Sequence to fold (301 residues):
Amino acid sequence: MAETFSTNQSVKRNVTDIALNLSNTMLSSLENPEDEHEAIHTVRKTIKKMRALLRLIRKEIGEGHYKEENIDYRDIGRKLSGLRDATALIETVDKLLEIATASDYDNLQDEISDFRKKLVAERKALFEEIGDQTELREEILKELRTLKDRLHQWPLKNEAFKSWAAGLKKTYKKGKKQCEQANGSKDPHDYHEWRKRVKYLWNQLKFLEELWPSMLDAYTDSLSDLSTLLGDEHDLAVFKEKVYSADFEGQPSSEMRHFIDEQVRDLRAQAIELGQLIYAEKGKAFFSRNAAYWAVRQGEL
Fold:
């Protein structure tokens, strides 16, 4: 089953098919994981897709259903966050090492490599402390199976785009506002919140890409680029907090700090420039344009 809306099916059938596909992806990832880290990453990524779908149809299914489903999926993601964050830190160091090696900061390679060894050791200790993850995995599998059964109860009746897809406009407007806020505050928290909105919008438009593939593919590619920039910025912020902490063995050199700060400034500048292009439209115009695509595909225009 695909993860996109088909214009020749009812909204309920589309939503159910997508939700079932997402549910099955999470279940299969956890049932027999070949790589524990990759399985965790897949489940967390898929949960974000599910929550984006719920936000898209929020108005149609009602606040009660939306809140119950959204909170349950959110809580599952949180159970896995510590394990995933430990791997994300290592991936961040790998990116820093690659950038430093190809720049004037190549003399920092040994220092960055030392950080990596410490973070790998910490991740190993974390997994050893947690021990056998079978119990946690079985607990999450049980919760995911319950949620899968429950999705058939989502009340979806309206075929009007302005009703069932109203969440698209809300997601866009929140992202536009968060872009402006991050640009003004320069606060890492605002950039992190902005990235969440970008990911929700990216997922929602990926669900709808059949409306006009060539048009929406270009837009979602830009959203993906923006998400990567903001994700790298967030990972660097977490890395800074980690290695600048008094509890971390071995503080970074002044040159290392300058290198990290330089990367953060560059990522933010690129993100703001791209974000201003992505959010150039007013929320109403953005929504009306996508509603028009749906109407064309339904033969209503």
